[in-house]
Amino acid sequence: xxxxxxxxxxxxxxxxxxxxxxxxxxxxxxxxxxxxxxxxxxxxxxxxxxxxxxxxxxxxxxxxxxxxxxxxxxxxxxxxxxxxxxxxxxxxxxxxxxxxxxxxxxxxxxxxxxxxxxxxxxxxxxxxxxxxxxxxxxxxxxxxxxxxxxxxxxxxxxxxxxxxxxxxxxxxxxxxxxxxxxxxxxxxxxxxxxxxxxxxxxxxxxxxxxxxxxxxxxxxxxxxxxxxxxxxxxxxxxxxxxxxxxxxxxxxxxxxxxxxxxxxxxxxxxxxxxxxxxxxxxxxxxxxxxxxxxxxxxxxxxxxxxxxxxxxxxxxxxxxxxxxxxxxxxxxxxxxxxxxxxxxxxxxxxxxxxxxxxxxxxxxxxxxxxxxxxxxxxxxxxxxxxxxxxxxxxxxxxxxxxxxxxxxxxxxxxxxxxxxxxxxxxxxxxxxxxxxxxxxxxxxxxxxxxxxxxxxxxxxxxxxxxxxxxxxxxxxxxxxxxxxxxxxxxxxxxxxxxxxxxxxxxxxxxxxxxxxxxxxxxxxxxxxxxxxxxxxxxxxxxxxxxxxxxxxxxxxxxxxxxxxxxxxxxxxxxxxxxxxxxxxxxxxxxxxxxxxxxxxxxxxxxxxxxxxxxxxxxxxxxxxxxxxxxxxxxxxxxxxxxxxxxxxxxxxxxxxxxxxxxxxxxxxxxxxxxxxxxxxxxxxxxxxxxxxxxxxxx
Length: 698
Fold this sequence. Notes:
Elements: H1 7-10, E1 14-20, H2 23-28, H3 30-37, H4 39-45, E2 53-60, H5 71-81, E3 87-89, H6 100-113, E4 116-119, E5 122-124, H7 129-162, E6 174-176, E7 182-184, H8 188-204, H9 207-217, E8 221-224, E9 234-237, H10 241-249, E10 257-259, E11 262-268, E12 274-280, E13 288-290, H11 300-313, E14 337-339, E15 347-351, E16 357-362, H12 364-367, E17 376-379, H13 380-395, H14 399-441, H15 447-477, H16 484-494, H17 497-501, H18 508-518, E18 519-527, E19 532-539, E20 544-550, H19 555-558, H20 563-572, H21 578-587, H22 600-609, H23 625-632, H24 636-644, E21 649-652, E22 659-662, H25 665-677
Parallel strand pairs: 1-2, 1-3, 3-4, 14-18
Antiparallel strand pairs: 4-5, 6-7, 8-9, 10-13, 11-12, 15-16, 16-17, 18-19, 19-20, 21-22
Helix pairs in contact: 6-7, 8-9, 8-14, 9-10, 14-15, 14-16, 23-24
């Protein structure tokens, strides 16, 4: 009987703590598990009855480096702190905790509650100085052992990775050969799918566009399972955005061998627990990066270019100035303009009825409170038309070559898609032949197995018909086979690029992509002393050109009458009446600011607005109809009646001009005699019948 063990210890339960670090150790190192469970016999031999022995084994397969996830260890610490444990049994004390913090906390609690710690080396009382010192050293050595083991393992892996010999799961499209070398997948369909994905991204510049193209063409993308019973099995399914992003960001496809792209980083949770998280690190921090290690699907330069395009596609990044992918919308220069005042990206604001009037605006200084108005705001068609004219001028010598290259690219793209469909049919035929062979090799008397194999054979044949039908539908509806007649038409259209550019069938998104192939960015500088905008164009080849775009005058200035019309009216007013001026200006082809013909109301407004004096064209000896009526004391209608009958001589300026009467003394006496003869009309101003009213105005 150990003298350290007292009756007080035996009166409390004994805890048997069972733990192994990983599930693999639990599965394969079962001898260690049996030895830990055998500690129950040792506890009974030391005096604890069977009913007072408690086994804590819920931490099997859990690492002792931290307390997180170890429920039984938490139970052990809680019961020890309550003084409810007489002794703690473990195969070796390092099984309790590999962390010095957790280990010394447990020892301190055991010393306060006089709880014993027992392993295969002996029985220890943490309250005793010598025993506590030995336990402390053992805990420190256990933690140091983890450090040494981790250093040796990681050092071996790093040394092997530096030689490019460390094996790890390869991405789809690669596999290991018999000599553990990384080679391309021997499956043509797998290689074709990967190559097609990179090609579509090269054309569109957007990962989501690749997903849309595969979904539109009905194409599948492979995935190879790793581990378990499905290891190395090829699974075909739809291409998702996460998978294409993983494909584009993996340097293995560029022929590079990389180790350490993702590393562990420790963090403290709100609950105070220390956790390890895997995070991606920048390229300079990769531990191993061997270029041209194996054959790749793309070059290293194309891989770097893809990373830049993906970074530019993010419009929420802090350092992103211009957005790379072309999107829908009427503004062709969206994502390509920089403000010459503040250097910020120019935004597109869609205004008007349903957003049909887009404008380019720079609002950064106003939004930041540095200015009271925008740097500039210009209608999109002004800048778009100017840049398109420059592009047409640059492409004029190479229109035919571009058309031939476009035809060749279209044919290659269709061939690549149809090749994927043909390989899919071949795979379905192979699966059908395999199912047939398995059915033919089965024992006919084993009806249960034969029936299952026959059903699989029938399903495989139906699958062949489905795939062939889908391929035929795709070829009929979506594949574009270029005929010789179509080639002739395309080459003819290439000689008239502006007409093709402005065609209704050409989408704005396609125009934007073509502009991005030629132009890198455009800096917009608004001249303050003139209504002009200077576009500093930086082409993809590095050349820079400047284009000046005049801006339209304000709407208020546009509504003003031109100085030419005002001076012409001032000139004609000295010898013509308003109706004659209207007729003269319309015959000369002059129009109002809105493009309308000149009217009498316009002439009157111009006379008032610009103080154009009206010259009296009536001669001194002439009278108006009203003046003659007052002079003879008759109604004005009688005067008009006499004018119509030719009794009075008049001078008429135009169809709507006034009547000026010239009358002699003899004629005036004759009119007075008429009035005297008709005495009942004297001083009587009644209206004549409508038939006697002249159709004129005074």
